[in-house]
Amino acid sequence: MWQGEQHLSALTPIVKRLAKDPSPAVRACAAQAVHALRKYSPDTAMDLLDELLASTAADIYGAHTVRDMLISALQQDTSRFSPHLFQALSLPADAGNSGGQAWACLALWGVLTPDLPATVQELSEPARNGAAQVFAQHPELSLPWLADLFNDTDPTIRDSAARATFNIKQLKAAALNDFVQTFTRSKAFPKNKRTFLNTLNQQTSLPPAAIEACEQAAAQGTDARLTGRYLIPLLLRLDRQGSPTDRDRCLDVIDHLALTADLAPVDEAQR
């Protein structure tokens, strides 16, 4: 059905039967066909999704096919399908995670309905983790939510949110500086500082807040690899591009490293 509508008339009755199948596993697979049907007959597809979700089987929300179809349906008719999302958000494990991903999409689109949680802190742990996974893909739009998730009480959620550091190349200068400052001051920074500093060093131009990131990393303790591969190259770049005050701060960090870390890799970094 994704390829064309030449078999639509023959396949539609089959899809309708599968969407009403008593087996949750069958309905979860049928969601992909319902999603394809939406391209040609959106009203029929929305009706079928309503029927497909009319089940007490919580696990169906954890299927990626159902999640993708629900997100698509929410985009088309938020108020109609928000009750289904509300149910998913209350479920554990994968079902709750999928609900959190759908909630994050609505938050990014700015169309959260009054019956849904208004803030990420109101979500369950599985739902917060799902939301973190979506927000991490769009740091240019998600910093207000990521700021909370970087400091979540659950380390798994903090790590999911921290994957946003892999997507900072898309940020403009002011947004990048805000992101770096927010992440550096968060609970997610200590565990994820190595990958963060590596990604930061790949930026064409370093934001002013990068100095604070180096200071925090050095203060939290480093090893030879972290010092030589990540910190020293950043400090040398910041020293070249910064103001006299910035250069003094860079030298202070290097002085601290000289007392607490192995600086054998410094000569290599300077070449």
Descriptive overview:
- The protein has 271 residues and is mostly helical.
- The chain has a domain at 1-102: Serine Threonine Protein Phosphatase 5, Tetratricopeptide repeat (Alpha Horseshoe), CATH 1.25.40.
- Helices cover 68% and strands 0% of the residues.
- It is built from 15 helices and no strands.
- Helix 12 (210-219) packs antiparallel against helix 13.
- The longest helix is centred in the C-terminal third of the chain and has 18 residues, at 224-241.
- The relative contact order is 0.06.
Can you identify the CATH class of the domain at 1-102?
A: Mainly Alpha
**How many strands in all?**
0
Let me know the average pLDDT.
90
The percent range for strand residues is under 5%
Question: Ranges with pLDDT <50 over ≥5 residues?
Answer: none
Assembly level:
single chain
The N- and C-terminal alpha carbons lie at a distance of 58 Å
